[in-house]
Amino acid sequence: MQAIKITENRVVDWLPQRSRQSYKGSYGRLLLIGGNANMGGAIQMAGQAALAGGAGLITIATDPVNVPAIHASLPELMVVDWSDLKQVQAALESSEVILVGPGMGRSLYRWRRISQLLYQEARTKPLIIDGDALTMLAADIKDQVARLEDFNHLILTPHPGEWARLYETTEPKSDPASVQAWCDRYQVYLVKKSEASQVYLPGQTAYYQNTCGNPGMAVGGSGDTLAGMMAAFIGQSQDDLPGAILSALYCHSALADQIYQDHYVVRPSAIAAGLSAFMRGLSRKKGV
């Protein structure tokens, strides 16, 4: 299969123009689901990245123990208790893009309750499955495989360990043709994270290769930040799902490369903190 490099020019071409006549509802209504009592920081990092990435309205469904911290650090976001399924369902109904998984934990009971709501409310919406939700999906994949095929816009973002679990083997095939066949089987968009991340789109004869990234990014929270960025970018460009996915991956790594020039470790919160200015720089190259 042919590898197509993800370049800055592609991101500049994709970058949406923010109209003077727009308002918060013009830039995507997001629901981010995750953050158990022990890993609330993961969903906060996803929320911080989504906000910096330009999302218009963001709601987090999380363990109630995380609510005070989210209100204190991210006052722009709304929060619901994820154990209250009526609240979660209402948030799903009003959202346009859903992210599930950051810091969710590996409670199969919780996953099955949430996934049932996703099946009811999110089959026609872009749905990003990340982090612990990927592990739960893999554990339940034989029962849920038919449901996977019912989702119109399903995006999976596994790191190597999660990819092995999804592929149902300790030594998953990683050659592009086999990965593409897996994506075609389930009709999913796959962001296969590694030191040289790849993106596979269903029904394609080529895949996309990231050209940025560095070892300073090997720290907890990097994936949560990428997932939040991806949700934000999709929310602003729902008619160009591939462009939003590729642009989020590139911006995440390219900005991290800038930070790595002066820092031994690239903190995910530093990526989120610099994202808005980074995107403004790209928009100037587009002339907007």
TrEMBL record:
Task: Summarize where AMP binds, as residue positions.
Answer: 193-197, 223
Q: Which InterPro entries match?
A: Carbohydrate_kinase_pred_CS (IPR017953), CARKD (IPR000631), Ribokinase-like (IPR029056)
Chain positions recorded as (6S)-NADPHX binding sites: 42, 103, 159, 224
Q: Which family does it belong to?
A: Belongs to the NnrD/CARKD family.
- Role noted for this protein: Catalyzes the dehydration of the S-form of NAD(P)HX at the expense of ADP, which is converted to AMP. Together with NAD(P)HX epimerase, which catalyzes the epimerization of the S- and R-forms, the enzyme allows the repair of both epimers of NAD(P)HX, a damaged form of NAD(P)H that is a result of enzymatic or heat-dependent hydration.
Describe the protein's quaternary organization and the partners it interacts with.
Homotetramer.
Query: What is this protein identified as?
Result: ADP-dependent (S)-NAD(P)H-hydrate dehydratase
Q: Which organism is it from?
A: Aerococcus sanguinicola
